[in-house]
Amino acid sequence: MDSGDRPRQQERVERFARENPRAVLYDPAVPALLDVFSGKSLPLPWGLVAEVSERRDAGTGRPYLSIRLDDGRQLALADAGIAFAPVTAASGPLPDLPEAVCFRDLANAEGRLAHYLLDHPGEPATRAHLTLFLFCLAVVDGARAVGFDVSAEERRLERLLGEIEARRDAP
To answer: For 51, how many CA atoms within 13 A lie in the half-sphere containing its CB?
Structure first.
């Protein structure tokens, strides 16, 4: 990366954050990004930034900012927050898994799974519930891969998995 591009890259990130304050905040002093929905901070190591490019979502046409790091990590700043690729090493391939996910996706899937587990006691877990759990796992693993601290999410998923396993073993 040409170090002369750095000011332009930083300006793109700062501008996106200013234009989307309900999705992403940027603290140049750290430097770090804040996913507003989750409240999670992500360091942005400018020394590792290889590329910052403005793009449009193929499906919706909405703009987003793609950030690629020298170490292979990629993330996007979008109107839904900080997006990243899910990681399926632990979950295996999943049907209809999007190329990019965010903490809103995790909250939606986790909420659906928790609703089932809390509001439908005694019902056996189905393949659909396990797939939903595996989706959550892929999102958490993707968040960890780009540098987020996901220890709280891991604890929640452990509890959900425990409940799913208990229902599988129930008479």
So the answer is: 9
Cα separation, 66 vs 54, in Å, equals: 6
| CA dist., res. 92 & res. 99, Å (int) | 14
Closest CA to 53 of 66, 72, 69, 68: 66
Q: What is the CA radius of gyration of the chain?
A: 18
Integer Cα distance of 137 and 131 in angstroms: 10
Q: pTM of this prediction?
A: 0.92
pLDDT per position as a tens digit, 59-71: 889 999 999 999 9
Angle of helix 151-169 versus helix 127-146 axis, rounded to 10: 160
Q: What is the pLDDT of residues 74-111, one digit of tens each?
A: 999 999 999 999 999 999 999 899 999 999 999 999 99
